[in-house]
Amino acid sequence: MQRLQNRTAIIWGGAGSIGTATARRFAEEGATVYLAGTTEATLKDAATTTGAAGYGVVDVLDEDAVTAFIARVVAETGRLDVSFNVAARGDVHGTPLLEIPAADFVKPVTRGITGSFHTARAAARQMVAQGSGVVVELDSASGRGSGPNMGGTGAADGAKDALVRDLAQEVGPSGVRVVGIWTAGLTDSLTAEKLGATLGAPVPQEMVDTIIANLDSLRMTRKSPVTTQIAATAAFLASDDAAAITATWINATAGMFPS
Fold first, then answer.
1. Domains in the chain and their CATH numbers?
2. pLDDT confidence tier of residue 257, bands split at 50, 70 and 90
3. Taking the complete model, does pTM exceed 0.70, yes or no?
């Protein structure tokens, strides 16, 4: 049975590794999926490979563009049932807090919470009007403490954690749920190119392999999560099977910490 049949979903950051895996899973579950992101070429490719119904070049920091894209999707499908935000926010890692420039520390905080607020609020407004819907967010759970040299990631995640809990209380009486997924270090998405962009320097493959082995060792299961597992979790949370779950975060870290 397709759990998302006759549902419309938007994935913000839909051309990334988590976004494409989730788009594919949502489509398999029967949803009409739209992708949003900042690069048309990658969005077009992602839409083709995942079975998405459409896409839009949208910067989540532009509230008017977010609102306009939702209006377009609703005009084409009649509703919006799921909003899943996995848009990148520019985290900078590798520098101690005593040395990191303030701008690098603040960037993921301001970009992350602004993008989440724009997408979650615009989606929730539509969902409140129609009397149902699910807003799904994702972060690394670093609001609990991110460890050394992680820049503003902990502060950014903490802000998003609070947004989910607070928004859920306001829109719950209208039939709208707001939930989040905690995960980090998805080993099938770690590449030398992506790590180099985050750290601001070239990364050899040997370093990537070492990082993956270390991540595996930190899990209770000794095996890190992968993108398809997060996509399946998002599909569950977006479905009626999760109708009793709101105002909370699902720990999908493979046991990096108890919660």
1. 8-185+225-251 (3.40.50.720)
2. very high
3. yes
